[in-house]
Amino acid sequence: MKKVLVCGAGGFIGAHMVKRLKREGCWVRGVDLKFPEFAETEADDFAVGDLRDPDFCRDIVDMRFDEVYQFAADMGGAGYVFTGENDANIMHNSALINLNMLEACHRRNTKRIFYSSSACMYPEYNQTDPDNPNLSEDSAYPAQPDSEYGWEKLFSERLYLAFHRNYGMEVRIGRYHNIFGPEGSWNDGREKAPAALCRKVAMAEDGGEIEIWGDGKQTRSFLYVDECLEATIRLTRSDWTGPVNIGSDEMVSIDELAKMIMKIAGKNLKLKHVPGPTGVRGRTSDNTLIEQKLGWRPSMPLIEGLKKTYEWINEQVQASQGRQ
Predict the structure, then answer these.
(1) Residue-number span of the structural domain to which 254 is assigned
(2) Which residues are catalytic?
(3) Is 143 exposed, middle or buried (0-12, 13-18, 19+ CB in 10 A)?
(4) 81 closest CA partner among 92, 71, 72, 90
């Protein structure tokens, strides 16, 4: 039986990964500051603790794992990452987690480790045109991320690659592009655009209005969580290190995203554009390299993932309103 460690298993992607690995018959240890918020963990063993503590990291890596998935990070959506108020925590906390986990795995001779990087590490100057962003993997340098979150991701990529070169660690690096789906943050200030807009639409009365940060013309692509897990596992079990984009190339503006969700909900709402953090003007995943190396591309249209996500968030909204 394959033994797997999932760091960040109390978070959105990590909790979904635990479920996926259990369906495959793996023995899974999860670790996080907290248990998953929206469902019981399916991990065989779950350790609650702080990965910023090197002693705790050594305690949880108490055997040689076949695979490690490192999702743990201090992160959130635009409202958390781009205000500037959380920069020190984002850089300090995430860097410590990665330094500690790499050292703990190296000491136990656990070699195969996946690191979840982010499209936020790409240069801001390649993402000024909302219709034609350049996010091929080789465009990462000269580096100029638009946030400290992106700089930390870039540093950590180089950290993992250094352990790969110097210590023979079987590192795999995926650059995630806006992963979304049920059982993630939707109302705590760390939610990303799909969840935030699903919440706003669910809470609005038909004929009312919802707020959109910025002019709504900024573009993004969004990848449903099940697709993300498939690409991540394929990369981790391949003989290729990466880094590689893991995302969708179905690019939409934020206004278009809101209208798709309104259509799902059967509501006609006005869009009110207000000042707020928006990040870069354009971003979508260039999937040329991952198709060449792994033969993978997303199969689920954005609208289908949004239907599943809106249904879940609408249930949360109705439940929360029922408690008031």
Answers:
(1) 182-220+250-283+300-316
(2) 149
(3) middle
(4) 90
DSSP state of 126: G
Q: Which helix (H) or strand (E) holds 4?
A: strand 3-7
Three-class SS state of 262? helix
For 122, other C-beta atoms within 10 Å of its C-beta total 30
In whole angstroms, give the CA distance from residue 274 to residue 214. Answer: 6
Residue 65, both tokens:
């794992």
Residue 258 CA, chain-centre distance (Å), reads: 20
The verdict on whether omega for the bond into residue 54 sits within 30 degrees of 0, i.e. cis, is no
Cα separations in angstroms, 223 against 111, 215, 299, 302, 309: 28, 23, 10, 7, 12
Give the tens place of pLDDT for each residue, 106-164.
999 999 999 999 999 999 999 999 999 999 999 999 999 999 999 999 999 999 999 99
Residue type, 203: M
Closest CA to 288 of 318, 249, 259: 249
Residue ranges in 214-297 assigned as alpha helix (H): 225-236, 254-265, 288-294
Is residue 309 situated within a structural domain?
A: yes
Please answer whether residues 286 and 137 qualify as being in contact, where contact means their C-beta atoms are separated by less than 8 angstroms: yes
Q: Give the residue from 77, 143, 154 showing the smallest Cα distance to 117.
A: 154
CA–CA separation, 224 and 302 (whole Å): 8
Reported as a pLDDT band with limits 50, 70 and 90, residue 6 is very high
Question: Does residue 288 belong to any structural domain of this protein?
Answer: no
pTM: 0.94
**Residue 292 domain-assigned?**
no
